[in-house]
Protein 1
Amino acid sequence: MPAPHRIDTHHHILPTGYMEAEGDRIIGVSPRFAEQLRAWSPTRAVEEMDRGGIASSVASISAPGVWFGDAAKARRLARICNDYAARMAGDHKGRFGVFAALPLPDVDGSLAEIEHACGALGADGFGLLTNFGGMWPGDPRVAPVFDELNRRKAVVYFHPTAPDCCVNLLPGVPAPLVEFAFDTTRAIVSLLFSGTLARCPDIRFIFSHGGGTLPMLAGRIAAVAANLPQATQYPGGIMPEFKKLYYDVVSVFDPVGFTAVQQLAGVSHMLFGSDYPYWDTEANVSALGRQTLSTADRQAIERDNALALFPRLAR
């Protein structure tokens, strides 16, 4: 068993109250993982971390998140998930960090949950979905939430989900296969074109799965955006904005995709993740192991870059 040294920034939890309230809906997003999702527990998570040489994981809620059209319900689910994650982190000292969930697009509820997460819980950052009820993160209606996260110099992690319009766009093709990658790109472009990236320079943004399709589309987006009025918000250019973001390399299994992320972000902005319990940790450990990297670069991706964002996890 490898010595625990990796820091996993893409690790999901399934709190009891969350599963009791929305278990069928949660499993419905990825039904082929039903067995491992129903069997999830903190104990199993720690055992899997030990098998994968993971010292610490930053826990988050995956799709479908906590927003199902009812603000009161979303607030309640976010609080259930965040309190559970904080208790789990306390019960397993040093093994877990917390990305707190927010009930977006409910602005008032999200602002209250930011205060609770930062104050009472000591959360390490915030875990959001790439869209919430068909609204993307650059929407001006949720700008107060990102302004508050910027004021707090927060780490904000985005996990993809499929917008309602595209869940069954290709019959027989599961939404996570294609739509998750494209919605990650939509979220980044939403933040870019809305000016959120310019207005909130102190947020450290992390995007899942190598930034979705962004590494392949970044040049095209930058070239087109340079001729649009929004470009004036970024006097240094568009590509440098993409390089400021962080990207985990979960399911970036092939050298073509990995090299694209590396060229876009640079090694210093790449992070290890497992996507447990949707993947066995070994799948992403092995995928990273197959990439051609120096010892120092591998150490940076597996641990050091995450420690720069979450120094509390050093041990």
Note: The chain has a mean pLDDT of 95.
Protein 2
Amino acid sequence: MDTTDDEISFDEQGFCNHCNKYFDLAPKTLHHGTDGKKALETLVNEIKAQGKNKEYDCIIGLSGGVDSTYVAYRVRELGLKPLAVHFDSGWNSELAVKNIENIVKKLDIDLYTHVCDWEEMKDLQLSYFKAGVINADVPMDHAFLVVLNRIARKNKLKFFITGHNFETEGILPSSWVFGANDGRNLKAIQKTYGTMKLKEYPVSTLVEELYNDYFYKLQKIRILNYEPYNKAEVMKFIEKELGWKYYGGKHYESVFTRFYQGHYLVERFGKDKRRAHLSSLICSGQIDRKTALQELKKPAYTNLDLLEEDKEYIPKKLGITMKEFTKIMNEPIKSHYDFPNNHSAKNTLRRIKKIIS
């Protein structure tokens, strides 16, 4: 990490706040060894008990990436009955489609795919570019979360087993992201910059978000925290066992996310997420700092020819010219908090809940 994170700070030993936070949280978050095995066994038995005589006992997201692929494998290995949910945003790479097909076929998992209304998605993504806010991936992430929660409620599923894990994703500056579940913020950005109302796009309201959090209470289970999770070893494993193919970068299964993380964030905001991802791997002992620094000397796009293709493809698919997109890229950036949002309301509710508890 470096000062591209405006909020970074260093202690007397030269350690930054991210590393200190990682090492403080690791013992509380990671459940390895015998205790972790027992805790996972107890959790699996609870999921099975609640799902007895049901077609499914849990829900998982499936993007075709490393983490979600391995989660799909592990839940089947543990004897669970997952329903996989995939959100087709219109940006899937051909390789991602093939990977997902292989996974569900080999693991015998039912898959629900929600295909977006492309005209609405296209208009919303352009709105985020025009707004100049940092998390241009919200349109896809928000819709996925809404769809997943609604499918879980429809099937009366109480457990969401996610691929998010502490060992490879424990570090990420808060200023580099914005919560994808804030429907009010999304609608405000679309109202300001969009050209159409969102009729088919699955957008949540504050009431729905509160219902999910405080009443339905879909439990988010980070199953990969219950055992050592080595990214490189897992990639080799799923390649061998599931015929999975590597995309060339984290979250590169989506053409849009590949462009967003590998080019847009770097060029418009000066933020290279590889710093955070590599820092997590250093702290978890999977690589050393020297190796990470060497990796950062390489371009964020591992394939520069592919970058040039994507720079032409993205504007074209969004229905604008390269000149128009370049103009958007040069507009002043803004904060998500410059637009109406649910942040204050949710914080107030959390404080009330804490006082009541």
Note: The longest helix spans residues 33-50.
Protein 3
Amino acid sequence: MKSFAKTIIVALSIFLFVSPALSAQGSKIVSYRAYGAVGDGVADDFDAIIKAHDEANKAGLKVRADAGATYYIGGANKTVQIQTDTDWSGAKFIIDDTKVENRNKNVFNVSSKLSSARITTVKTLKKNQEKLDLSLPSDSFIVVTDNTTIRYKRSGRDQNNGAPQTDTFIVDTKGNIDKEAPIIWDFDNITSMTAYPIDAETLTITGGHFTTIAGQTNLRTYYSRGISIARSNVVVDGIVHAVTGEGEHLPSYAGFIAVSNCAGVTVQNSHFSGRKYPGMGTYDLTVNRAINVTFKNCKQLNDIHDRKLWGIFGSNYSKNITFDTVEFSRFDAHCGVANATIKNSVIGYVGIALIGSGVCLVENTKVCGRDFIILRGDYGSTFEGEVIIRNCEYVPLNGQQSDAVLINGSNSGQHDYGYTCYMPRKITIDGLVINDANPPNNYQGPKIFGTFNNAYKSEEYVEKFPYVITEEVEIRDLTVKSGKPYLVSGNPFMFRNVKITEK
């Protein structure tokens, strides 16, 4: 009897050893070591990590890295699919981009087990529409395009012919549209409409120190070699990303954290790196076609005022982006942001650059850019909505000699951007200190608006595509350290009809 029991125990032990999935199920945790990861920083652990997550995804189990391990990930054309909670605490990862087989392949992809679906029954949409005539199995994130309507026809150095009209919004199972992320365009011809189901449970990724060995090419191309998040309701907590090996030749990066086609993502208690400028934009954080994305208690590892480093963050086609207790070189919205909040933060040398709509709230924040807010001229300096500046400090160029302009931009009125361009309808300044202690020669005082269009100085100037100017500026509690009075603009004619109210 004892011999039989011993045989059973030995057989079971052997079976568990050769069956990591069953072993993982018994412990309810999947480890990389169980699938062959060495963790010495030399052996390539990419395949082992992939296998571990594949098994965890099948069984619905958590994944935990081994504390103290250093996992080397080479440039193979592969991706780790993450669909369950993952704990990288105490572990390090080296991502080697010096020999990449596919620059478009992210190392990790946080994905949903729920499948997206094309919607073909909805033919048109209206701006601010409240309901769709359809039912869905779950609340969903929607992406809609109209290839017959072209928006964002960029001007300037990187001029292009624009992109198909695109919008994102959230609907519930009965077709009701979330009012906090409304439709911003009319769609008379829908080319495509896709519903991405929103997972009810939150997926959490914790910890992990990542070092990217930078690519060594000077091609004008983007690398996607980080963590793609394409699942709704995700929290990334306590991640660190450093970069090494940036030399004379290096590619641009599309974001170590790249959020897209989803809603409800929070990145918190984390550190990221500004990238060396390769001649075109390069980012450690990007948000594209996403809603309700928050960066909270996050910092930049390197100097947010270092002008050799490109801005750390960029976004397109997104809504409700929040920076809360963040220290980054910039906030930047390219192809439109609907509603942006920056609070309790420090923004470095690039400042706040945006176009879009809705409300831009900057609160309890120190801004160290050349301008407090720059409305991007390459997209027509348009923001159709309201700007609120509350209890903030503005230090132009972080104390270097500089003019002080609160809202700057450029629009000649001669370029078709694919939409009517607006300045913020109303600007509210409710508690602002302008630290203009190092002004240029002949400095007259801070300006609410930049010149925007030097040629527009009389009624004789004709705008082919009229630029809609701000209606009202409301000012409460404005302190100017130089003691000089503020000016409306260095181009007073253009802003002659703006109502200025001091309270």
Note: Residues 369-503 form one domain.
Protein 4
Amino acid sequence: MNFHAHRTCKLPTIIVLSGLMLYSVRANYFTNTVPMSTARQGHASVLLSNGKVMTMGGYNGTGAITNRTELYDCSNRVWTSAAPMTFNRENFTATPLPNGMILAAGGQSVFYNVYPSNAELYNPSSGTWTTTGALKIPRNGHTATLLTNGIVLIAGGQATNGYPTSAELYDPATGNWTLTGTLNIGRSDHTATLLPNGKVLVTGGHGSAGSDFTSVQLYDPTTGNWTAGNALPEGREFHTDIALQNGNVLIFGGVGIHGVLTSAVLYQPTNGTWAPTGSMKKERYSPSAVLLPDGKVLVAGGYDDNNVVLSSAELYDPATGTWTATDSMKLARVTPQAVLLPNNQVLVAGGTGAAAFNDILSSAELYIIAATPLPPIVMSNPILMQNGSVQFGFTNSPGISFTILATTNISLPATDWTVLGTATEVSSGQFLFTDSSLIASQRYYRVRSP
């Protein structure tokens, strides 16, 4: 997407702008958005029924676990404070219920292995939290899965006396928890995925029996029982699971017996077997991941095999079974929260950074998906200022990042133009750029996204 600006010292009060008004399909990229008011790690983020994202709880980096919550509105890209949770908690689960409420359960309320049994509900209509029935067993690092019948399954985690094999069901109609079938191995840092047949697939993790489990179990809501599934080809913990649009489950990364993994495997619910698929470009554990509207999977950040915090990101394409690199995040992050927004952008917020020990982040960024071409640039208010600066504005899609390039020789290829900086979005869809450098009698400008 390009336009050229020609300026001449012979006519110092005139800027002649000519537009090439080209449509351009941009590459996917990350761009900064407004930071949260609170730094968070071990927090939870969920999409509400009103289209806003609620981010809640977590460790704030100043020695405290918080109950503060805030809402992100993708229409104007701002955070606003919301009612605090009733309890401070981190490493808990937050589950959207069919009635639009959010169930927050368990986690860690203070340090030194104090795990709460309490649970609470957020009502988006009233903007309030209310307590609900308590877990039978206090736990942290567990999984929560919304079943097809609207009941929530809590499995595994860590308790004060080890790793419970118990699982529990929360019924929104009564607000009560009941124990259900028992896992064969107590585990934490595992994954739990709802399958198309209504069963729940639990994979890997670690527990009192050891680490890097190959163990797989299946929960059947119709019987309340757990049964063994075919073992993972390679044991892993701190890995990631994504239910694909074709019904298969993608398991990737994590920590194995020989270190951090690049490998990925597919679980096929139709026959209960595992199949290899392409490996990631970079080994990683504890990243963020989200299923995109086109069926691809975005994974970003995490730790590598040397515990270096990563900013890199990649995409998995189920059609080809391959991973490709995509734009890196603006900041390296571990365990950020990633949520697909109603506008098909991805919000990535918080987590642990790489700047220093205990670098807990409040920053947030958006992954912009190249779904449609950008509209042509519409120029407005070009000015040659008295100090010699050139200022111009243009309109385009809000939330997009635009890079400004310049040259004095229009015959040069675009790769040889000089990058001047990024346009500022002064209001929704309205962009402004000022070139304050001392330049020759004429200069040409180009706008590129990103």
Note: Residues 3-25+374-448 form a domain with the Immunoglobulin-like fold (CATH 2.60.40).
